[in-house]
Every structure is written in C-alpha cells, then in structure tokens.
Amino acid sequence: MEANSAPELLPGTLYLLILRTLSRGPLHGYAIVKRIKEASREGLQVEDGSLYPALNRMLVKGWLAAEWGVSENNRKARFYRLTPEGRKQLDQEAGEFDRLVRAIQLVMRTA
Amino acid sequence: MALWKEIGNRLGYLLRRSRFDREFEDEMRFHIQARADELEQAGLAGADALRQARREFGSTLRSGEETRSAWQMRWLEDLSSDLRYAARALRRNPAMALAAVGSLALGIGANTTMFSVAREALFSEPSCRDAQSLVEISTRGNRWVTVAQYRFFRDAHVFDGVAGENHELPVNWRNGNRSYYLAGTHVSDNFFQVVGVPVAMGRPIERGETDAAVVTYGFWRNRLNGDPNVLGRKLELDSKPYTIVGVLPRDHRMLVGFGFTPDLYLTKDPAGFMLYGRLPQGLTRQAAYARLRPICRDLDRVYPEANRKWTEEVQLSGVGGMDRLREMGGPMVIPALAFFGMLVIVTAIVVLIACANISSLLLARALTRSREIAIRMSLGGSRGRLVRQLLAESLLLAVLGTGAGLLLNLWLTRALSGFRIPTPLPIELIVQPDRLLLAYSCVVAFVVTLATGLVPALRATRAGIGGALKEGGRQTGPAGSRLRSALVIGQLAVSIVLLSAGLLFIRNLISATSFNAGFDSAHTIAAAVQGQSDPEKFVDTALARLRALPGIEAASPAIALPLNPFLAFNRPNEQLRPDAGSRTVRVEYNGNSVGPDYFRIMAIPILQGRAFLDADRAGAPGVVILNQNMARRLFGDTNPVGHVLRFPGDRDATVVGIARNSTYATLGEKDAMALYTPFAQLATRRGACLFVRTTGPPEAMARKVDETIAELDAKASVRTKVMREVFNYALLPSRAGAAVLGGMALFGLMLASIGLYGVLLYATQQRIHEIGIRVALGAAPGDVLALVAGQSLELVGTGMAIGLAIAAVAVRPLSMFLVPDVRPTDPLNFVAVACVLALVAGLATVAPTARALRVDPAVALRHE
C-alpha cells in the first residue's frame, strides 16, 4: 500500500529515469527500481510489471545492452548498460525534460 | 539507420525466441528473489517474504507477455504462422502441390530464360569504362570511316581520345605448317585506352604499338590450350608477327554488342573504322556535337565524298541500350525485337495459364472451406486477416514456383552460354543471371501471387455468413463455378492462340527442312580458302589435286556459297541493258562466279543453252548464265540464249545458258534473281570457295579434301564444311522457333487440359447428389453422360471460339519469320488446332464422365 502513496509517473519519463540511472554504470532490473526509489527519496515507485516491458523496448531500440552477470549476493542476474545511442538519447531527453519542466513551472508561477 | 537496427534486433529475437522466454523467466525469478531477500533482512520469515515479493511483482504472465510484445513484429509472426498453415495444406496434397509448383516453375523458367537471352542479345552493356561518356561518331546510315578521316578526328582534340575499331575482318593465323581462319578485330593503337576495356591477364594494347594482340578468353582456352605463359607469345597473323600482350576476361562484351565474340584484337589499319570518342569530363553530347561542327566542315573540304556530308549528317550515339540497337541493327532491329518480344510474350502467356490453373485450384479449395471461413467470420475473425491467410497459400506456391523456375533458368542459361553460333563474327552469348533478372522474377512472383490468390480469397470471404452456414458441403454457389469456368475458358482460348503459333512454326520447320533448295546438298563439300600466296595459280592447282582424289566426282571454284553468310553472294543493284539497247532494267541480283562443273556439282540443271566451258577463260568473250527469274525479268518470254547483256561501264556479255531457280541468300526469299559469270573471267581473285561432289557420303571425304587443299599453301586458311552442315545453320532460326513455340504450345495445352479436367471433376463431385436423384427418378446413363459432356462442350466450345477469333488476328505478324509456303492465315492451320484441342478436351472429359456414370443413387442419397 506504501507504493500507492507515490505519485504516478509522468508518461514517457520512465525511459528517462532508466537511462539516467544506468548512466553511472550497469545495473540489474531490481537495482534499477531500488535506485530510482532511493534517489527520489521514496517519491517515485516504478511498477515491477512495467519495468521489464520498458527495458525490453529500450533493448529493441538499441539504447541498452544486456548481459548476464553475478549479483552482489551471488545470484545470476541480468545487467543492463547504456549503449552510445542510449547516452545520446539520454542527453536529448534530459534536455527536453528540463525545458518542459521549466516551462510548466513558469506557467504555474506566473499565470 | 535506427529503424534498420531496430528491425535487425527484432529479427534477432525471432531466431532465439525460446531462449528469450527461458531467460525472461530467470530474470523474473531473480527479481522476486532479490525483493524477498530484502524483506527477509527487514525481518519477515523466508516463506512469507517470498509470498510478499510475488504479490508485489504482480502477474509474471502479463509482464512476460508485454515484454515479448516489445520485440514482436505482429505481421511477420502472422505471416509465418500463415505460411506454416499453408505448407501443411500443401503437404496434405503433395500431387497437387507438385503439379502447381512444377507448372509454374516450367513457365517461369522458360520466361526468365527468354528474358535473359533477349536482354543479353539486345541490351547488354559493353565491357568498357564509363559507358555514359563513350560515344560512337558516325554519319547517318554510314558507320565506316577511312583511316585518314579517323586520324583527322583523333588529332582534332574535341574528345579525350578517339579510337577506331573494325570487327568485320578475318585474319589468317599461321600455326605450324597450316593457317587458320580467325575472327579478328582490328583496332587503332589507342583503342584499349580510350574505351577502357578491362583485361584479365597481362595488359591492354598501348599507344604506339603496331604488333600487339589481345586474345579473348575463348581463344586462349580453346586454341592456345589455356597456356598460362601465353603473354609474350608470338602469333603470325596475316604473315606478320604479333605479340600477345593480354587475355580478355571471360565475360568480355564487344562494343558492337549482340553477343559478337571475336578471337582476338590486334593493331592494324583496315580500310575502314568505326569511331568511338571519349567525351571529356563534364562535356555533354550536345556540347561535343557543337564543337565537332567546324571539324566536320574541314573534313568535307579535305575529303569530299559524294555520298557523305559530315557537316550535315554527323551524329554521336551511345554505346549501349537502345542507342546501339538503333545504330547497329538497322533494318534488323524490328524483326529481332519482334522475335525476342514474341518469345518473351509466349512464355509469359504460359505462366498465365499456369496461374489460372492454380487460381482455379485455390478457388475450389476456398469454396470447400467456405464453411470454416464463415464460422471464423461469424466468430469475429476479420476479413483482412482471413484474406491474408488465404493469400499465404498462393504466396507459398508462387515463391516455390519462382524459386524452382530460377533454378531452371540457371541451368538453361548455363547450357545456352556455351553455345557458339557460327556466324562470320561468331556469336556467343554470356547469359548470366543478374539483379535485373532477380527483380523481374520477384515481380513475376508478386503478380502470380495476386493473380492466383486474390480473387479466390476475396470470393471465399465475401459469401454471406448465413448463406454459407445454411447448407453443408454443396454451397459452392453459381458465382464461384462461373469464375472457374471463366478461367478455364480463358486458358483454352489462350492455348488456341499458342497452338496456332506453335503449329505455324512447326510447319515452317517441316517446310524449311523439306524445302527444295534448288540444289543438291547431299553430296557436296565446300572449302573456303583465303590468304593464298598466289591466288591465280592456287585454284588451278587445287582443282587438279582434288580431281585426282578417289571418290571425287567433280570440283569447281566459286566465290559464293548458297545459304551461307560466311561467303555470301554479291548483291549488286545495277542498271542492265538487254541486247545492249536503250532500254535499261534496274535489278538487284545474287552474283556468283563459278567454274564449268559448278552446275553439275550442285545439281542445278541448265534448262536452255549450255554451262560454262573451259574455253570461257580470261581474254575470251564475256559470257553469263542467268536463272529463270532473271531471264524473265530482262528478256520477258523470249529465249535469251545468244542475246547480249550490257553492264554498267559498257561491259558486254553474251547469255549462254539459263539455270533453274534455286535458293541463294535465305530459305525464305521469293523470286530471287541470280547471275553467274565464269570464275576464270574474274578480274581479281582473292578468296575462293572450292566445291567438290563426292560419289559416296561427303562426311567421309571432308578431312581428305581439307588436307589436300591445306597442304598446297601454308599461308592460306582453309575452312572445309559439308554442305549439309551449312544447311543446318540456315535452319537454325526455324529450329529454335519451332522448338520454343511448339514446346510452349504443348505445355500450355497440357496445363489447359488439366484445368478443364479439374473443373469438370469438381463440378461432377458437387453434383453427385443431384445426379443420384436424377438416376433414382429414372435418368438413363445417356442423360447423365449428356449432363457432364454438355458442360465440357460448353466450356470447350466457348474457349475455342474466343481463341480462334484472337488467333486469327494474333498470328498474322508471324509471317515475317516464316517461309512463304506457310501462310499464317491458312484455314487448315486453325482446323488442325481446333481438332487437337477437341481431342485433348475429350480426353480430359472422360474421367469426370465416368465418375458421373458410376453414381449409385442409393449411396449418393444416403450421403445426405
């Protein structure tokens, strides 16, 4: 029930969050969810059910690559990392997102 | 870019789908386990932690499905499942699948091969660097330029080089103690540089060289035994030593096109050149043309020629495609295009007939499946999806058929490529499958799919749901049957057209084979001699030696060989004056100069007067012998023997005899005129042909004759042939036409009869119930027979009527390929075709009729 208190993600921001989270190094799926949750101070909760379809769509687009590795507690896990295209995509989406947020804030403050 | 990568990723997924599923499960398990570990650390018990983690994750099934759909290409998966379904359907009925694929393959194989051959023969790109900037320089209707004029152009510097080439000159190659006739192409020293001909081994001929030769692949392989150390080897050509500097690649294509393949290229200035110029970078043809004008004016001033004005007539034309075709072919273009066009069309028609068969077959299957289709539609299956599924079956057939057809094409073209047509400049087509052919066959496959699949698919899915469900089994409906009947009628009609054309060509072949050529070719040998050291003495010595051989009845010289393009008749077109009077008659005739025994050897009877005598020698009064056509033309009905004929230049000759008409240039010629003069009275003798008549079969003597002549003079090249062989060559077009058209016509007829058989059998099966009722109500076997045979008669009658009407018009243009005896409009032809079709149709009706007659009312009615 705790998850419900977190606000719904803005549409399209899931990719951005995943890209940003992976920009510091490869992670497995569970770590991505955890990292986002921690970084947002529990403000954002990625649904487990929507994480993997999103990751796979990004694999298809070639933004991510995936490899099997070993997790911190010695389990076989699939690690995702950014590809050069993914990095480019991150730069582009981050810029767009900043502009969007600034614009929304402007409207919220002044209008 | 990104899109391609994405498609590539998706395709990669298709290949390892099962691994993907396995890995995804592992990943889910890990995720849930990781969450459970965490919960456990927070204090939950192991089992509870796992349960809690599972609950939080939600449905793994849904997640998996969504993840998978990220990778999938919906239509591709649908297509592959449709294709699998179609493949199962085909496997269930292998005979039908084999027949369908086989007939398509044969049709497409023949069609693509015709396409390849036509493309290679007419439109092949020559082997040169940048064909776009290479032009041929000529004046309208005259391509030959003297060497002096060539130099004038070369030194004018309008072009980045002007090169000359002459491919019409034979060369004598002295090898050991005898000489051979070679098809040589004479080129200017800069030819290879200007044109940029690629060389496989060694180097091209270079500027300033006067004694270099580049040999073709075929010559190197067959005549020089593929000698790897051939570079630098000397060849004695026309008594002059040449050095081989290079060997051309196997797929070398001459600038003149049409598959002409010489033995070698050598530097030599012939009497005339064809000129090729390389346009400087960026200069258009128009600009080059403008720059040529002043040079042409100078040319006309320096070399005034009566029948050529460079200033007015100069033209620059391309070296490939249509341009070359127009330039090279001249009057031959239309028949050549028409001939290949006809073959391509005929084979395409066969493909269509095969398509109609498959279409009709698929239609029948779709109709029997209409119940299933109706159920699927009523359950909400979309029509588009169903149509796609039905199309998949025809797509599979088309792809299989086209694939098999392409294999057939590969085999056929390989067989054709090795074939060397012995024209004076030998023709050897390098037919290779290429991208264009692949594109062409893809188009064919696409068209076939649509033609065979779309109509049945649309038809099958259109039937209302209610109607189809109402009544099991027999709901074919009149509309479907009508369509199949129309297809069969169309097939029959087209077969009639094909059969008519095929029959014409077969009759043409028969007629040409049994054609009375007007001379005897069964006992004669002809030897063409060229390059003798002493032409005057050579013929006399050779004749004496030949006559001394056992088994030789007579020997005579001549300058031309009938029906042979190697040594064709002169064809003067002159103003002649009968009786040296004021009346002039313009005649184009076949001229030959022959020895006294020529008419005996060729068994051409002298109808009036006498043959030539030994006394008709140089210095004696001029004499001529005319053929009947020529005599009638010049002297009407009066006996011309003893009359005088005045030639241009006031040269007089007395007509001493009339020879019976025979054939000269082609088998198809009509009312050809001929004039013979004594060989001994020729002003100059260079080449000559020696004819001998043998007592036994000539094949046994040919070698002896060849050796006897060859050993007289090591410098002279001798080509000895049995006349029958020459005759075979003249028959080649008739044979090819008859084989292709006859074969295609029979094949088309076979396909059409299979189609008819299928429709009748199917119709009978659909009516078994009805027939059962009729028989139960007292119908006699005769009535049942009339029922099925009547339907057949209706189909065949309609198809035949339409086909005959089309054929009567369509075969008319074929007359240009036929000997005069065979008239395309001959009613007998159509009667014969109709009879053949009726016979075959009758055979196709037998089995369905028998099936109808076997209907047992008790069984048929219980069937309900």
The number of distinct helices of chain B, counting runs of at least 4 residues, comes to 27
Mean pLDDT of chain A: 84
What are the low-pLDDT stretches of chain B, counting only 5+ consecutive residues below 50?
472-476
Main structural class of chain B: alpha+beta
- CATH-level-2 architecture of chain A: Orthogonal Bundle
Secondary-structure class of chain A: alpha+beta
Strand percentage of chain A: 5-15%
Residue stretches of chain A low in confidence (pLDDT < 50, at least 5 long) are 1-5
Radius of gyration of chain A: 15 Å
Number of domains of chain B: 4
Approximately what portion of the residues of chain B adopt beta-strand conformation? 15-25%
Helix percent of chain B reads: 40-55%
Q: Please report the total strand number of chain A as a whole number.
A: 3
* Greatest interface: A-B, 25 and 28 residues
Order of helices and strands of chain A: HHEHHEEH
Percent helix range of chain A: 55-70%
Query: What shape does the CA trace of chain B take?
Result: globular
